[in-house]
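testing teh design pipeline on a random one, pls ignore if ur not involved
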């Protein structure tokens, strides 16, 4: 029998690049832009990118991109939703910094509390409703955790 070479097909790089997200507010396609396009001189990370609605600045929706890729960090969001997501991240980070849970532990726990599949439990994909729920749940757990620690040590935290 002849040796047959196995044909290995290399995926076209174009197929590995995600399509720019569609804006949920106006239906336009977003455009990959340097973060300076939105933030100007206030850009935190030089060389970072955003998907920005092609209707910007009238529409105002955008989302960050994972470093070194073209993968969006979530869905496009307007200023109100971006602020809610920031607040939800802060609530989650407070649990982690306090030593109550690990970052992954918070996502596993939130998945259960919000009745979402783990793969969909990411603040960058949360709606206004899920951000509010995540904030409330995180604050409630932190309050309970601190109260229990205070009782054990006999010291109240405040």
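output:
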């Amino acid at each position: 029998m002849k040796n047959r070479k196995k044909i290995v097909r290399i995926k076209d790089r174009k197929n590995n690049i995600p399509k720019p997200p569609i804006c949920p507010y106006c239906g336009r396609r977003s455009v990959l832009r340097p973060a300076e396009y939105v933030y100007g001189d206030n850009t935190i990370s030089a060389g970072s990118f955003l998907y920005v609605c092609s209707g910007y600045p009238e529409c105002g929706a955008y989302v960050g991109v994972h470093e070194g890729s073209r993968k969006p960090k979530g869905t496009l969001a307007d200023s109100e939703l971006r602020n809610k997501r920031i607040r939800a991240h802060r609530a989650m980070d407070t649990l982690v910094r306090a030593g109550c849970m690990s970052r992954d532990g918070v996502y596993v726990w939130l998945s259960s509390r919000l009745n979402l599949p783990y793969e969909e439990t990411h603040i960058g994909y949360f709606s206004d409703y899920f951000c509010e729920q995540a904030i409330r749940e995180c604050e409630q757990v932190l309050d309970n955790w601190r109260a229990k620690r205070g009782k054990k040590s006999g010291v109240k935290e405040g």
